[in-house]
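Encode chain A's predicted structure.
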Amino acid sequence: MDDISPVANITGKKLKILRKRARLTQNAVVDMCGVSETTICYLERGLRKPHSSTLQRLLNLYAQRIHYWEEMAKALEWRATCPRNGP
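Encoded structure for chain A:
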């Protein structure tokens, strides 16, 4: 499997936090969004980037705006490409 990208890792952590704040189990999210349990598990662990339609369904479930996530992803991708200071 490919290395975990910073975007997938942060996205996964945020999705898990949102699910727990909504007091939902992974099985409940599966039933409500129509995605597989494996997909939810991989997303929350940061092992896979969400497809845009999957992300939109999850954000709708958690009442979040996709604009916030797009801006966060851009910032993380920019940060990952910046040269590091020092040795």
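The CA atoms of residues 35 and 54 lie 8 Å apart.
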